[in-house]
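quick one, 282 residues, struct below
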Amino acid sequence: MLDRYLQKQGINPKTLTIPDRLSLVGSEGRGALEFRPDQSVMSNEDYINFDHIAAETKKILLSNTYQGDSIESLYRQGGSPGGARPKIFTKYDSKEWLVKFGAITDPPNIGQIEYEFSILAKKCRVEMPETRLFENKYFGVERFDRTPGGKLHVVSVAGLLNADYRLPCIDYLTIFQLCQKLTRNVQELWKLYRLMVFNYLIENKDDHAKNFAFILRDNEWHLAPAYDILASEGINGYHTTSINDSITPTKEDLFAVAEKAGLDTKKAVEVYNEMTDNLKSS
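---
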Protein backbone atom coordinates (compact mmCIF):
# COMPACT_ATOMS: atom_id res chain seq x y z
CA MET A 1 0.00 0.00 0.00
CA LEU A 2 2.86 2.36 0.79
CA ASP A 3 4.42 1.76 -2.63
CA ARG A 4 1.09 2.41 -4.39
CA TYR A 5 0.66 5.62 -2.38
CA LEU A 6 4.16 6.80 -3.31
CA GLN A 7 3.60 6.04 -6.99
CA LYS A 8 0.42 8.10 -6.91
CA GLN A 9 2.49 10.97 -5.46
CA GLY A 10 4.92 10.62 -8.37
CA ILE A 11 7.66 9.00 -6.26
CA ASN A 12 9.53 5.88 -7.33
CA PRO A 13 9.49 3.58 -4.25
CA LYS A 14 12.80 2.03 -5.34
CA THR A 15 14.58 5.34 -4.75
CA LEU A 16 13.69 5.40 -1.04
CA THR A 17 16.38 4.57 1.50
CA ILE A 18 15.66 2.70 4.75
CA PRO A 19 15.69 6.01 6.73
CA ASP A 20 13.21 7.41 4.18
CA ARG A 21 10.83 4.52 4.83
CA LEU A 22 11.27 4.81 8.60
CA SER A 23 10.37 8.49 8.42
CA LEU A 24 7.13 7.50 6.67
CA VAL A 25 6.39 5.18 9.59
CA GLY A 26 7.11 8.13 11.88
CA SER A 27 4.91 8.05 14.98
CA GLU A 28 2.23 5.75 13.55
CA GLY A 29 3.95 2.35 13.57
CA ARG A 30 3.12 -0.66 15.66
CA GLY A 31 4.65 -0.75 19.12
CA ALA A 32 6.14 2.34 20.73
CA LEU A 33 9.12 3.12 18.50
CA GLU A 34 8.88 6.44 16.68
CA PHE A 35 11.14 7.85 13.98
CA ARG A 36 12.22 11.40 13.15
CA PRO A 37 11.73 13.27 10.96
CA ASP A 38 8.10 12.18 11.20
CA GLN A 39 6.52 12.13 7.75
CA SER A 40 3.68 9.79 8.65
CA VAL A 41 0.08 10.52 7.77
CA MET A 42 -2.88 9.08 9.61
CA SER A 43 -6.62 9.64 9.35
CA ASN A 44 -8.58 10.64 12.47
CA GLU A 45 -11.94 9.64 11.01
CA ASP A 46 -14.29 8.00 13.50
CA TYR A 47 -16.58 6.50 10.86
CA ILE A 48 -15.19 3.98 8.40
CA ASN A 49 -17.13 2.61 5.44
CA PHE A 50 -15.84 -0.96 5.62
CA ASP A 51 -17.73 -2.11 2.52
CA HIS A 52 -16.12 0.66 0.48
CA ILE A 53 -12.66 -0.22 1.79
CA ALA A 54 -13.21 -3.92 1.04
CA ALA A 55 -14.24 -3.12 -2.54
CA GLU A 56 -11.29 -0.81 -3.10
CA THR A 57 -8.73 -3.20 -1.63
CA LYS A 58 -10.05 -5.90 -3.96
CA LYS A 59 -9.43 -3.62 -6.95
CA ILE A 60 -5.91 -2.94 -5.71
CA LEU A 61 -5.17 -6.65 -5.23
CA LEU A 62 -6.49 -7.49 -8.70
CA SER A 63 -4.43 -4.85 -10.51
CA ASN A 64 -0.79 -3.87 -10.23
CA THR A 65 -1.55 -0.57 -11.94
CA TYR A 66 -4.72 0.52 -10.13
CA GLN A 67 -4.30 4.12 -8.99
CA GLY A 68 -7.80 5.06 -7.84
CA ASP A 69 -8.59 7.90 -5.45
CA SER A 70 -8.88 5.43 -2.56
CA ILE A 71 -5.14 4.73 -2.52
CA GLU A 72 -4.44 7.81 -0.42
CA SER A 73 -7.37 7.33 1.97
CA LEU A 74 -6.45 3.65 2.49
CA TYR A 75 -2.87 4.58 3.21
CA ARG A 76 -4.02 7.22 5.70
CA GLN A 77 -5.98 4.50 7.52
CA GLY A 78 -2.69 2.71 8.16
CA GLY A 79 -3.09 0.12 5.44
CA SER A 80 -1.48 -2.14 5.09
CA PRO A 81 0.24 -2.97 8.40
CA GLY A 82 1.71 -6.03 6.68
CA GLY A 83 0.66 -9.59 6.00
CA ALA A 84 -1.16 -11.32 3.17
CA ARG A 85 -4.54 -9.71 3.88
CA PRO A 86 -5.26 -5.96 3.63
CA LYS A 87 -5.67 -4.28 7.03
CA ILE A 88 -6.42 -0.86 8.43
CA PHE A 89 -6.29 0.81 11.83
CA THR A 90 -9.44 2.49 13.11
CA LYS A 91 -11.10 3.74 16.29
CA TYR A 92 -14.38 2.35 17.64
CA ASP A 93 -15.96 2.64 21.10
CA SER A 94 -12.96 4.71 22.26
CA LYS A 95 -10.62 1.82 21.43
CA GLU A 96 -8.09 1.31 18.66
CA TRP A 97 -8.62 -1.63 16.34
CA LEU A 98 -6.97 -3.46 13.49
CA VAL A 99 -9.56 -4.57 10.93
CA LYS A 100 -8.85 -7.12 8.20
CA PHE A 101 -10.23 -7.58 4.71
CA GLY A 102 -10.11 -10.65 2.52
CA ALA A 103 -7.32 -11.53 0.12
CA ILE A 104 -8.15 -12.72 -3.38
CA THR A 105 -7.78 -16.38 -2.43
CA ASP A 106 -9.80 -16.11 0.79
CA PRO A 107 -13.35 -17.47 1.08
CA PRO A 108 -16.03 -14.76 1.23
CA ASN A 109 -16.64 -15.42 4.94
CA ILE A 110 -12.98 -15.24 6.03
CA GLY A 111 -13.81 -12.58 8.63
CA GLN A 112 -16.40 -14.83 10.26
CA ILE A 113 -13.95 -17.75 10.20
CA GLU A 114 -11.16 -15.83 11.95
CA TYR A 115 -13.61 -14.44 14.49
CA GLU A 116 -14.84 -17.96 15.36
CA PHE A 117 -11.25 -19.13 15.81
CA SER A 118 -10.63 -16.22 18.18
CA ILE A 119 -13.61 -17.35 20.27
CA LEU A 120 -12.24 -20.91 20.30
CA ALA A 121 -8.83 -19.62 21.38
CA LYS A 122 -10.33 -17.78 24.34
CA LYS A 123 -12.32 -20.87 25.27
CA CYS A 124 -9.01 -22.78 25.34
CA ARG A 125 -7.54 -20.03 27.57
CA VAL A 126 -5.18 -18.74 24.91
CA GLU A 127 -4.58 -15.08 25.72
CA MET A 128 -6.05 -12.86 23.01
CA PRO A 129 -7.17 -9.23 22.81
CA GLU A 130 -10.84 -8.37 22.41
CA THR A 131 -12.17 -9.32 18.97
CA ARG A 132 -15.23 -8.19 17.02
CA LEU A 133 -16.99 -9.01 13.78
CA PHE A 134 -17.67 -5.57 12.31
CA GLU A 135 -20.83 -5.44 10.23
CA ASN A 136 -21.04 -9.22 10.67
CA LYS A 137 -18.25 -9.83 8.16
CA TYR A 138 -15.01 -7.93 8.89
CA PHE A 139 -12.73 -9.33 11.59
CA GLY A 140 -11.38 -6.79 14.02
CA VAL A 141 -8.96 -7.14 16.92
CA GLU A 142 -8.23 -4.53 19.57
CA ARG A 143 -4.66 -3.24 19.39
CA PHE A 144 -2.68 -4.52 22.36
CA ASP A 145 0.15 -2.05 21.75
CA ARG A 146 -2.09 0.89 22.66
CA THR A 147 -3.40 1.75 26.13
CA PRO A 148 -5.05 4.82 27.69
CA GLY A 149 -1.63 5.51 29.20
CA GLY A 150 0.22 5.43 25.90
CA LYS A 151 2.05 3.09 23.56
CA LEU A 152 3.70 -0.19 24.52
CA HIS A 153 6.87 -1.60 23.00
CA VAL A 154 6.27 -4.76 20.95
CA VAL A 155 8.87 -6.84 19.14
CA SER A 156 8.33 -9.98 17.09
CA VAL A 157 10.41 -13.14 17.30
CA ALA A 158 11.43 -12.46 13.71
CA GLY A 159 12.71 -9.03 14.73
CA LEU A 160 14.56 -10.30 17.79
CA LEU A 161 16.28 -13.16 15.98
CA ASN A 162 16.62 -11.48 12.58
CA ALA A 163 14.68 -14.50 11.29
CA ASP A 164 13.17 -14.52 7.81
CA TYR A 165 9.47 -15.07 8.51
CA ARG A 166 8.92 -16.00 4.87
CA LEU A 167 10.91 -19.20 5.35
CA PRO A 168 10.83 -22.10 7.85
CA CYS A 169 13.79 -21.19 10.04
CA ILE A 170 12.98 -21.75 13.73
CA ASP A 171 11.56 -24.34 16.12
CA TYR A 172 9.05 -23.76 18.91
CA LEU A 173 11.79 -24.65 21.37
CA THR A 174 13.69 -21.58 20.13
CA ILE A 175 10.67 -19.41 21.01
CA PHE A 176 10.48 -21.04 24.46
CA GLN A 177 14.17 -20.31 25.05
CA LEU A 178 13.66 -16.72 23.99
CA CYS A 179 10.59 -16.44 26.22
CA GLN A 180 12.58 -17.75 29.19
CA LYS A 181 15.41 -15.27 28.67
CA LEU A 182 13.12 -12.27 28.19
CA THR A 183 10.38 -12.89 30.72
CA ARG A 184 12.02 -15.16 33.32
CA ASN A 185 8.47 -16.19 34.19
CA VAL A 186 7.13 -19.74 34.00
CA GLN A 187 3.58 -18.46 33.54
CA GLU A 188 4.66 -16.88 30.26
CA LEU A 189 6.05 -20.25 29.18
CA TRP A 190 2.67 -21.86 29.89
CA LYS A 191 0.98 -19.16 27.81
CA LEU A 192 3.32 -20.02 24.96
CA TYR A 193 2.64 -23.73 25.44
CA ARG A 194 -1.12 -23.16 25.13
CA LEU A 195 -0.56 -21.17 21.94
CA MET A 196 1.64 -23.93 20.47
CA VAL A 197 -0.95 -26.60 21.31
CA PHE A 198 -3.79 -24.51 19.90
CA ASN A 199 -1.93 -23.95 16.63
CA TYR A 200 -1.31 -27.69 16.45
CA LEU A 201 -4.92 -28.67 17.18
CA ILE A 202 -6.52 -26.26 14.70
CA GLU A 203 -3.78 -26.94 12.12
CA ASN A 204 -2.54 -23.38 11.94
CA LYS A 205 0.60 -24.06 9.93
CA ASP A 206 1.25 -20.42 9.08
CA ASP A 207 2.98 -20.13 12.45
CA HIS A 208 5.99 -18.16 11.23
CA ALA A 209 8.43 -16.11 13.28
CA LYS A 210 6.54 -12.85 12.79
CA ASN A 211 3.38 -14.32 14.31
CA PHE A 212 4.90 -14.47 17.80
CA ALA A 213 5.85 -11.36 19.74
CA PHE A 214 6.76 -9.98 23.14
CA ILE A 215 5.34 -6.87 24.80
CA LEU A 216 6.79 -4.60 27.48
CA ARG A 217 4.37 -3.86 30.34
CA ASP A 218 5.42 -2.12 33.56
CA ASN A 219 9.09 -2.58 32.62
CA GLU A 220 8.69 -6.35 32.29
CA TRP A 221 8.57 -8.42 29.12
CA HIS A 222 5.60 -10.71 28.50
CA LEU A 223 4.50 -12.95 25.68
CA ALA A 224 2.23 -10.78 23.55
CA PRO A 225 -1.41 -11.80 23.15
CA ALA A 226 -1.99 -14.23 20.28
CA TYR A 227 -2.85 -12.98 16.80
CA ASP A 228 -3.28 -14.36 13.28
CA ILE A 229 -4.54 -17.71 14.53
CA LEU A 230 -6.76 -19.70 12.21
CA ALA A 231 -6.44 -22.93 10.25
CA SER A 232 -3.88 -22.45 7.51
CA GLU A 233 -1.93 -24.63 5.09
CA GLY A 234 1.44 -22.99 5.71
CA ILE A 235 4.18 -23.82 3.20
CA ASN A 236 3.38 -26.98 1.25
CA GLY A 237 1.08 -28.10 4.05
CA TYR A 238 3.77 -28.15 6.75
CA HIS A 239 4.23 -26.14 9.94
CA THR A 240 6.40 -23.10 9.23
CA THR A 241 7.79 -23.31 12.75
CA SER A 242 8.80 -26.88 13.51
CA ILE A 243 7.77 -28.63 16.72
CA ASN A 244 10.56 -30.67 18.28
CA ASP A 245 12.38 -30.37 14.92
CA SER A 246 9.43 -31.91 13.08
CA ILE A 247 7.28 -30.20 10.41
CA THR A 248 4.77 -33.06 10.69
CA PRO A 249 4.58 -33.22 14.49
CA THR A 250 2.56 -35.48 16.78
CA LYS A 251 1.26 -34.67 20.24
CA GLU A 252 4.33 -36.40 21.65
CA ASP A 253 6.43 -33.67 20.02
CA LEU A 254 4.40 -31.07 21.92
CA PHE A 255 5.15 -32.82 25.19
CA ALA A 256 8.84 -33.16 24.25
CA VAL A 257 9.14 -29.41 23.65
CA ALA A 258 7.41 -28.72 26.98
CA GLU A 259 9.83 -31.03 28.80
CA LYS A 260 12.88 -29.48 27.10
CA ALA A 261 11.56 -26.04 28.08
CA GLY A 262 11.47 -27.16 31.72
CA LEU A 263 7.69 -27.47 32.04
CA ASP A 264 6.02 -30.23 34.01
CA THR A 265 5.22 -33.05 31.56
CA LYS A 266 2.18 -34.28 33.46
CA LYS A 267 0.65 -30.81 33.47
CA ALA A 268 1.52 -30.41 29.78
CA VAL A 269 -0.50 -33.54 28.99
CA GLU A 270 -3.39 -32.30 31.13
CA VAL A 271 -3.44 -28.95 29.32
CA TYR A 272 -3.42 -30.72 25.96
CA ASN A 273 -6.33 -32.96 26.97
CA GLU A 274 -8.27 -30.00 28.36
CA MET A 275 -7.85 -28.03 25.13
CA THR A 276 -8.76 -31.06 23.01
CA ASP A 277 -11.97 -31.52 25.00
CA ASN A 278 -12.82 -27.83 24.66
CA LEU A 279 -12.44 -27.97 20.89
CA LYS A 280 -14.46 -31.18 20.60
CA SER A 281 -17.36 -29.63 22.51
CA SER A 282 -17.41 -26.51 20.30
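The radius of gyration is 19 Å.
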